[in-house]
């Protein structure tokens, strides 16, 4: 197979995207229920069949159905009949991943490897606070006290506060208020489960580029329903993966097929109130991964959710229906319709709001970098099941895979020790002889270091405040009783 089949026009012509042009990226858009996830699944399956590994965020778990064959006599089979094609139900090789370790194998990294820029974005820091974060990272490199977990970051920040005068002299001005703001945001990140992302063993990006023994590309699905509730965590995590891919992969030039294709579902989360430097970073990354043989598809409600500089980089456009209920939505439809190359005699603006589920307006990139004129198609349905697999099926697949053994769930008491030795070796420093490390005790930090600012925290802070109220109530009650006794 040398191309990905997208759909069939009313006159029966097939619209397809050559495999070698998948690295020119794409966008799949439309309102909820218009068919985006299903289209994404059909493309993913064909990539896998062609031996291309895929990474996709699975927002509601409904992509997981790709692991098992679809229904032989359901509506999909009927649709294939309408399109004049035979339906062959088929399941595909899948690796399930989950930061929280519940619905897949955990993906972890270290605070040190994530770096100051992405971590600041994850914490929603302002430029001054980001400056403090950068100093914290520089200092930890200089002192060889590498940070694995968010707790380690807290220790470092606390040290910085204690040695603030010295730090200011050596690295530049850092205010106590920036440090305590970072501490506060760390608590919020932890409340969203962000601490689960940090630990050993570190995730090796090459595990996303596996091809099965039958020659089909493995489809890596990131379970993202809980992650979606923490949009900053979600966006930064995916950006980190993309950055790692970019860093690790060699230049590949033009390949017959991509090395990996990356699908960003709910991509608006990535761009919503993203600061300008971040958008520039995404734009650069998307432009440069292309020559490393990586294709990126953004999936979102409207092409206008994607900043213009990024949208320019997306060669293939698949626009599912948008609905016109208000003057505002009508304006959005017009803007969206104008992002696809027009065709004489076809009114994109009028066609977009009246598309049925599974219908789309499509323009694919061609060899000469010119996108094709818009075509209205019925999208080829997937061969796997539409909708989620059962929890049991998912569990069986996870436990049978090699990844569950490579990245075990749960805390490793020796993680910090192993991490530090690895960091030293990576930097060409001899870590010295190995010895039995002391066991790591979770929450050690909170036991020893008081929280500086309790402005926005949860948990222990609330408890402390309740205790305070109880304490003062007892005192007041006592005083009143004494007064009453005297009177
Ligand atoms: N190409 C298609 N062929 C057949 N049915 C489809 C197709 N696309 C969508 N559907 C049907 O529409 C439903 C909703 O589609 P979905 O892809 O989940 O929409 P979205 O991701 O845009 O919310 C699917 O569960 C499926 O039943
Ligand atoms: Mg969807």
What does the model show?
This protein has 487 residues and is an alpha/beta fold. It folds into 3 domains: 3-107 and 203-400, 3-Layer(aba) Sandwich (Rossmann fold), CATH 3.40.50.300; 111-198 and 430-448, no CATH class; 462-487. The protein has 18 helices and 11 strands. It has an 11-stranded mixed sheet with strand order 2-1-11-10-9-3-8-7-4-6-5. α4 (127-142) packs across α7. It is globular, with a radius of gyration of 26 Å.
Secondary-structure blueprint:
Layout: E1 3-9, E2 14-18, E3 26-29, H1 36-49, E4 54-58, H2 75-82, E5 94-97, H3 111-123, H4 127-142, H5 150-162, H6 164-171, H7 176-191, E6 219-223, H8 231-248, E7 260-264, H9 268-271, H10 276-289, E8 294-300, H11 308-311, E9 316-319, H12 327-337, H13 348-351, E10 359-363, E11 375-379, H14 391-400, H15 403-406, H16 415-426, H17 444-448, H18 460-486
Parallel strand pairs: 3-8, 3-9, 4-6, 4-7, 5-6, 7-8
Antiparallel strand pairs: 1-2, 1-11, 9-10, 10-11
The chain binds adenosine-5'-diphosphate and magnesium ion (MG).
Main features:
binds magnesium ion; alpha/beta; binds adenosine-5'-diphosphate; 487 residues; Rossmann fold; 11-stranded mixed beta sheet
Derived from helix and strand composition plus strand pairing, the structural class reads alpha/beta
Low-confidence stretches: none
User: Strand portion, in percent?
Assistant: 5-15%
> What gyration radius follows from the Cα positions, in whole Å?
26 Å
* H/I helix tally: 18
Order of strands in the sheet with most strands: 2-1-11-10-9-3-8-7-4-6-5
Cα(first) to Cα(last) distance is: 97 Å
| Biggest pleated sheet | 11 strands, mixed
Silhouette: globular
- The number of distinct structural domains comes to 3
Bound molecules: adenosine-5'-diphosphate, magnesium ion
């Amino acid at each position: 197979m040398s191309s990905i089949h997208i759909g069939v026009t009313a006159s029966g012509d097939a619209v397809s995207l050559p495999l070698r042009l998948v690295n020119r990226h794409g966008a799949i858009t439309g309102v909820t229920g218009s068919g985006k996830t299903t289209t994404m699944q059909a493309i993913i399956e064909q990539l896998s069949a062609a031996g291309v590994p895929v990474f996709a965020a699975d927002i509601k778990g409904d992509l997981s159905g790709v692991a098992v064959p679809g229904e032989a006599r359901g509506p999909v089979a009927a649709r294939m009949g309408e399109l004049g094609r035979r339906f062959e139900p088929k399941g595909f090789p899948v690796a399930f991943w989950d930061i929280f370790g519940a619905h897949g194998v955990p993906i972890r990294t270290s605070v040190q490897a994530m770096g100051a820029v992405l971590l600041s974005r994850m914490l929603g820091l302002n430029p001054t606070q980001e400056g403090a974060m950068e100093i914290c990272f520089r200092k930890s490199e200089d002192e060889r006290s590498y940070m694995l977990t968010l707790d380690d970051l807290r220790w470092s920040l606390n040290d910085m506060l204690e040695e603030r005068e010295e730090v200011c002299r050596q690295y530049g001005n850092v205010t106590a208020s920036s440090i305590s703001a970072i501490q506060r945001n760390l608590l919020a990140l932890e409340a969203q489960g962000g601490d689960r992302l940090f630990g050993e063993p570190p995730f090796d990006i090459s595990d996303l580029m596996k091809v099965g023994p039958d020659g089909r590309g493995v489809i890596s699905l990131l379970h993202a329903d809980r992650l979606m509730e923490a949009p900053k965590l979600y966006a930064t995590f995916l950006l980190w993966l993309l950055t790692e891919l970019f860093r690790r992969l060699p230049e590949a030039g033009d390949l017959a097929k991509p090395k990996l294709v990356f699908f960003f579902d709910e991509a608006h989360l990535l761009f919503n109130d993203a600061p300008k430097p971040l958008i520039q970073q995404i734009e650069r990354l998307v432009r440069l991964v292309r020559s490393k043989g990586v294709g990126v598809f953004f999936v979102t409600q409207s092409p206008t959710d994607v900043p213009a500089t990024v949208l320019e980089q997306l060669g293939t456009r698949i626009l599912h229906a948008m609905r016109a209920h208000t003057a505002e939505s009508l304006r959005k439809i017009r803007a969206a319709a104008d992002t696809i190359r027009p065709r004489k005699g076809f009114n994109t603006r009028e066609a977009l709001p009246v598309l049925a589920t599974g219908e789309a307006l499509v323009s694919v990139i061609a060899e000469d970098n010119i996108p094709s004129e818009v075509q209205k198609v019925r999208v080829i349905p997937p061969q796997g099941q539409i909708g989620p697999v059962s929890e049991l099926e998912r569990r069986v697949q996870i436990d049978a895979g090699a990844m569950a053994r490579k990245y075990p769930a749960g805390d490793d008491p020796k993680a910090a020790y192993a991490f530090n030795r690895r960091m030293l070796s990576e930097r060409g420093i001899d870590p010295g002889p190995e010895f039995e490390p002391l066991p790591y005790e979770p929450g050690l930090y909170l036991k020893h270091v008081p929280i500086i600012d309790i402005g926005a925290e949860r948990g222990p802070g609330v408890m402390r405040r309740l205790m305070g109220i109880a304490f003062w109530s007892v005192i007041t009650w006592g005083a009143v009783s004494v007064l009453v006794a005297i009177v």
